Amino acid sequence: MHFPTAKSAMVALSFVLFSAWAASIESVEAQVISDKVTWHKAPELPIAMQEIYPAVFKERIVVGGGFTPSDSPSFFGLGPSTSVYLLNPPTGRWQKKPSLPEPRHHLGMVSNRHYVYGIGGFAGEKGSAWQIQRSVYRLDGTFREWRKGPSLPIPLAESVYANVGKNIHVIGGKTISKKTGKNVDSDAHFVLVNNAYWRKAKPAKIVRNSAASAVIGDKIYVIGGRTSGENSANLQDVEVYDSKKGSWASLAPLPVAAGGLSASVLNGKIIVTGGEVFGPKNNWKAGQAFKQVWSYDPQTDSWEALPDMPTPRHGHGMVTLNNTLYIIGGAEKVGPQQPLSSVISIEGQKPQ
């Protein structure tokens, strides 16, 4: 009599154990799936653009300037652009907006609640394509006309640009040497206060250009980049500026040395993509572009490799809007080669 009962108990126990095992497997699979990066095609730019710094403004993505294919090029088939485009993602298409007052490449775009700014960058025709600018333009929420803003205290290009609160930060990049008149790397740090005037802030610890940056809370993270000149080199260095304390601190280095990379924040982590490295003796033609993707966790000060992008990119832009990260334009090969109009995206994890 008792044997069937014992058998039933054993079956029930086996079922419970199997269910627990299946649940654990399902949990692991769900975690793996949620951690995967799935690349999506996003609306393509109307034209190929590289050396761009897009911004989010009024729930729109704004990109402008940059190097674009040109009938009167200033640098290997490319020229500085006045074109400005705006993407409202639900519409699925980019709209042309008022052009910049003057052509610029490496124009730093960054926004606060009042304006989207176009800061510094390079101008110039063939033979003088790398003239660093002090000019600042801004566009309000009507998107009707670019107007002049407060000029930079010094010429700056290939800097990083960040918005913390109401203020705009411009850090590092290249400027013009007062001694030689040539372009040199900079550790300068200026803050645009109340859209009205620039003030000096504590210089970066590292002199560099072509770095990436991202903002989390009151902190600005500056990542990678390169130094120029005879001893030019890519950098892995990462540092963070605490705007409340006015201080810099060093962090865990990027796993790869890269310049011309880009970064944005998704789900509380900093996602860093692409970049390039020049060949020996600063020969960009012998270099390569990267398709690697890295994730930085500020809670643990650690880096994690994510799945590569479908193609290499450098000189591209990255922004995050409504929990979706967009990777915009750039070039597939090192230097002024194969500029891209394609845009890809990653969707962040939805809050539980």
Automatic annotation (TrEMBL):
Keywords: Kelch repeat, Repeat, Signal. SUPFAM superfamilies: Kelch motif. Residues 1-22 form the signal peptide. Pfam families: Kelch_1, Kelch_KLHDC2_KLHL20_DRC7. InterPro entries: Kelch-typ_b-propeller (IPR015915), Kelch_1 (IPR006652), Kelch_domain_containing_8 (IPR051746). It comes from the Bacteria. PANTHER family: RING-TYPE DOMAIN-CONTAINING PROTEIN. This is Galactose oxidase. It comes from Pseudoalteromonas luteoviolacea DSM 6061.
